[in-house]
From TrEMBL:
<dbReference type="Pfam" id="PF00392">
    <property type="entry name" value="GntR"/>
</dbReference>
<comment type="similarity">
    <text>In the C-terminal section; belongs to the class-I pyridoxal-phosphate-dependent aminotransferase family.</text>
</comment>
<dbReference type="Pfam" id="PF00155">
    <property type="entry name" value="Aminotran_1_2"/>
</dbReference>
<keyword id="KW-0663">Pyridoxal phosphate</keyword>
<protein>
    <submittedName>
        <fullName>GntR family transcriptional regulator</fullName>
    </submittedName>
</protein>
<dbReference type="InterPro" id="IPR015421">
    <property type="entry name" value="PyrdxlP-dep_Trfase_major"/>
</dbReference>
<keyword id="KW-0808">Transferase</keyword>
<dbReference type="GO" id="GO:0008483">
    <property type="term" value="F:transaminase activity"/>
</dbReference>
<keyword id="KW-0032">Aminotransferase</keyword>
<dbReference type="GO" id="GO:0030170">
    <property type="term" value="F:pyridoxal phosphate binding"/>
</dbReference>
<keyword id="KW-0238">DNA-binding</keyword>
<dbReference type="InterPro" id="IPR015424">
    <property type="entry name" value="PyrdxlP-dep_Trfase"/>
</dbReference>
<keyword id="KW-0804">Transcription</keyword>
<dbReference type="InterPro" id="IPR004839">
    <property type="entry name" value="Aminotransferase_I/II_large"/>
</dbReference>
<dbReference type="InterPro" id="IPR015422">
    <property type="entry name" value="PyrdxlP-dep_Trfase_small"/>
</dbReference>
<dbReference type="GO" id="GO:0003700">
    <property type="term" value="F:DNA-binding transcription factor activity"/>
</dbReference>
<dbReference type="InterPro" id="IPR036388">
    <property type="entry name" value="WH-like_DNA-bd_sf"/>
</dbReference>
């Protein structure tokens, strides 16, 4: 009888292996290595294991494939990237404002909530365009809506918490929710977005802690939540004491320039955490966004933010503050809306021409996304690969939580003159699969 148990032997082998004294190779067993006694063994860290560790899940395979295809072939016609083309961004205005900027008086760590003149500019922007009355003390500057969402999921929720999101939704494309250990539940959405009454049964079943909505020209469907549903959503949330995250990057792209009321502006009890961004109305590369929340929440998030990165660089915040307050802002918005409407029309005309009867969609009144249902049944992955071969990319609908057979075409990024060609290429890819 050996007085050693099995796990001790396994541990001892592991130790000898990590010291380089023994080596194991699949198929040839374990041997004493050519270890020089007294010499210090050299080991490269097991980077693969580290890379697979940590709490972040990798991005979705379709999104990684699209990014890789765009890197390999910059000439692909891009209906996938959710951003504006260079000609729609106010590059000239921003360059001029950068040049006219007085040099900063101090370049140290700034206030944890962000650069004061930008917080003031955001407060007056929100009053003017979103009907939200707030002060700079309730504004937190972030590096975009993505970071606002990250702060909310990491700091205000705990692993295991259940949250409700629209189905389909941009948020399905974010492993961020799963990385935070959240359980996500979809609220089915039609062309008018979610039906708020459905929140009640979801809450009963899953003890929902927070609701995430993108009520204006939603990503990916382009849906605009009607006023009565907005009222109902707020009513139910306040009845249940549930916070709503209003993710609002697209509202100012309304082609008719209509000021639809933000949920935050209708919020009488303080249920709404509002997040906004310059990404879809100016430039995604500026990485400037904001959040408006009760002061205790802003303080908590600003504190967490300090631990993460000590805040966004002051330079883009200065540029953003100047741009929001400049006489360029309003004419830029008007031009942007006009150009986006034009691109939407080009896309729709091209789809009618190239794929009559094979594709269905609702025409969005703002934003940069067109959500389409394909009439023939095709496999998402095959369609994407075929489209890449033909020279065009789009995002398969399953990325946003829907069944296969849907696609999202984003028309912010592609150049107007390429939209027709891009859709002709997509049509070739689709027809190749249904032949
Ligand atoms: N929310 C929605 C609904 C979006 O569409 C996007 C960008 N695709 C974001 C948040 C993140 O945008 P950003 O961080 O650039 O502000």
């Amino acid at each position: 009888q050996l007085g050693v148990n099995r796990s001790t032997v396994i541990l001892a082998f592991g130790e000898l292996r990590s010291m380089g004294i023994i080596e194991s190779r699949p198929g040839s067993g374990t041997h004493v290595s050519k270890y020089k006694w007294g010499a210090v063994p050299k080991h490269t860290p097991n980077w693969k294991r580290y890379a697979e560790g940590g709490s972040f899940l990798p991005n979705l395979p379709f999104l990684r494939r699209i990014r890789e295809a765009l890197q390999q072939n910059p000439d692909l016609i891009d209906f996938a990237s959710g951003e504006l083309s260079a000609d729609l961004s106010p590059l000239g205005e921003i360059t001029e404002l950068m040049g006219a900027q007085p040099s900063p008086s101090y370049l140290g760590y700034d206030h944890p909530q962000g650069y004061m003149p930008l917080r003031q500019a955001v407060a007056s922007y929100l009053d003017r365009y979103r009907g939200v009355q707030t002060t700079e003390s309730s504004v937190l500057i972030t590096s975009g809506s993505q970071q606002s969402l990250y702060l909310i999921t990491q700091c205000l929720l705990s692993p295991g918490d259940a949250v409700a999101i629209e189905d389909p939704s941009y948020h399905y494309s974010l492993p961020m929710f799963q990385s935070a250990g959240l359980r996500i539940f979809g609220l089915p959405a039609d062309e008018g977005g979610i039906r708020p009454e459905e929140i009640r049964s979801l809450v009963k079943k899953h003890r929902i802690k927070m609701i995430f909505v993108n009520p204006n020209f939603q990503n990916p469907t382009g849906a605009l939540l009607p006023d009565d549903r907005r009222g109902k959503l707020l009513e139910i949330a306040s009845e249940l004491g549930l916070p709503i995250v209003e993710d609002d990057p697209y509202s100012l792209t309304d082609y008719d320039g209509l000021d639809r009321p933000s949920l935050k502006s209708m919020d009488r009890v303080g249920s709404v955490l509002y997040i906004g961004s310059l990404s879809k109305i100016a430039a995604s590369g500026l990485r400037v966004g904001w959040m408006v929340a009760p002061h205790s929440i802003v303080e908590r998030l600003a504190d967490a933010r300090q631990q993460m990165d000590f805040g966004l660089s002051v330079i883009p915040q200065q540029v953003a503050a100047r741009f929001l307050e400049s006489p360029y802002f309003e004419p830029h918005l008007e031009r942007l809306r006009m150009q986006l409407r034009l691109k939407r029309d080009l896309l729709i005309d091209a789809l009618h021409q190239a794929l009559p009867k094979l594709i269905r969609f609702h025409v969005p009144q703002g934003g940069i996304h067109l959500w389409c249902q394909l009439v023939p049944e095709v496999n998402d992955a095959k369609l994407l690969e075929e489209a890449i071969k033909k020279g065009v990319v789009f995002v398969p609908g399953s990325v946003y939580g829907s069944d296969s057979g849907y696609v999202r075409f984003t028309f912010g990024r592609a150049k107007a003159e390429n939209i027709g060609t891009g859709i002709a290429k997509f049509a070739e890819a689709l027809r190749a699969l249904i032949r």
